[in-house]
Amino acid sequence: MFERFTKDARAVVTGAVEHAERDEAPAVGPEHLLLALLDREGGRASFALASLGGGAWLDSVRRALGEARRRGGLSQAETDALAGLGIDVTEIVARVEEAHGVGALAGDRRGRGGWSGHRPFSKDAKDVLTRSLRMAVARRDRYIGDEHLLLALTSRPGVPAEALADHGVTHESVTRVLYGGPESKAG
Prior knowledge:
mainly alpha, Double Clp-N motif
C-alpha cells in the first residue's frame, strides 16, 4: 500500500514513527500520525489545517493529545462517559501516578530500559491508513496524500478527531476546504 503514498504522506508516516520513538510508545498510534501531520508544512493537509485557523490552535491540539496519553489514551468523551458511571478518571490517574510515577498510564518507559527496534502500528493506526486508502479510492485519486490521512483521522472516533473537532476541524470541514461543496461519503 505504501507505494501508493505521495512523498508528503510517506513523510507523515515516517514522522509518526519518530513521534512514537520519542514517546517511547510500544506502537505507532493515530495520535502519532496527527502529530506528524501537524509538523508538516506545504502539503494539502497543512493547507486545510491552516485554512481552518490551524496556527491559532495547534499547540492546544498537541496539549490535548498529551493529556489523553496521560489518561492512558482515553478520549474526553470516554472520560465523561466513565464519570457518568461514577468513575473519576482524574482520581485514577493521580493514584496510579502516585504509586508508579508520572506518565505510568501513558506507557512512558523513560528511565526504565526504553524500547529498541521496530515500532509496529497499532490496530487504530492501521485503521487510519486503511481509511486513507478508501478516501483516495472514493475520490478516484491515484495516490494517497497527506490530505487523505487527515480525512481518515477526522472520520473515525478517537482522541485525534476529538482534539481537532474542539477547534472546528471535522471530516466535513476538511472535505469542504479541500474539495469545496458538500461532504461526500467515503470510507
